[in-house]
Amino acid sequence: MTAIFSLNNVLPLDSVGESQRLADSSVSADADVATDIDLSSIQGGVITIGNFDGVHRGHAELLGHVRRLADQMSGPAIAIVLDPHPATVLRPELAPKRLTRIETRAELMDQIGIDALVVCETSRRFLSMSADQFFDSIVKDRLRVKAMVEGPNFFFGRDRGGDVEVLAGLCDAANINLQIVQPMEVGRRMISSTRIRRLLSQGVVAEAADLLGHPHRICGTVKSGAKRGRQIGFPTANLSDIDVVVPSPGVYAGHIRVGDQSHAAAIHIGPNPTFESNGDSKVEVHVLDYDGDLYDQRVQVEFLHRVRDVTRFDSPDALVIQLHQDISDIRSALSQPFGES
Predict the structure, then answer these.
(1) pTM (predicted TM-score)
(2) What domains can you pick out in the chain, each with its CATH number?
(3) pLDDT of 106 over the 60 cut
(4) CA gap 164, 187 in Å, rounded
């Protein structure tokens, strides 16, 4: 599993007068986060710095390059992220909703062969560092990097003062190998987290999954609901505490992961207009061929196909007829290999 390192209060070493402390603050309490005694294990490797939200196919291409170069240099492959997103600190009203939690990013990076994910806690003080200070503090002094891999649109330091040209000069002076990887395009457009968020906001989960290279997933805790689904023969798990992008209202085919088990699922996002005229939007999951108790469990839900829009039916009986059709459509959709529709 990709190790998670969390760096707090990252400032130039000469401004704090001591070695950088490592602590768990940017990731959840149940994550496995390395301590300061382990810092040497990720020094002398190949790094890339970015947000990597979603760990999409473009990210995977760049991270794969990091892994291959690290093998050539006999060092660790390291990804560095700033968390929370800098916009959350500087302009919170414009900050994008994240696609993936830090732990999910580490899981996806593990499949690519990344050894460690270093999470830099973002603060105004951290963002006030110049490009030179950022480079010296993290790249040279703390991680003692041998090589870096970035995309052509990489910026770093206060007010995005450092670009790849500045980075090239700093790397050359520090005898650090720098390689630039061009972004991946699909449909003559660059794959980006912004593009994927837009697709999810439109409910186009299959195309989002194609750009991601994996289904979009959300994580939530199952809480008790109105139990209307159980009353009509379709019990649902009602999810709360979701902190990533949720697709637009609709009915979807996907999977629910409970511990190490994965089950086919019908997912309803939105209000229940058949029963409520002004109901709140909810995330409800009907688990196919499952009769267990999910209350208070933390689960992951993956979206593969959109089935239909949210609709108001004239009666509960009419809704039940449609739900049977939905289940049939969902079984058919999930019988196809991922990436086909």
Answers:
(1) 0.90
(2) 3-186 (3.40.50.620), 192-334 (2.40.30.30)
(3) yes
(4) 26
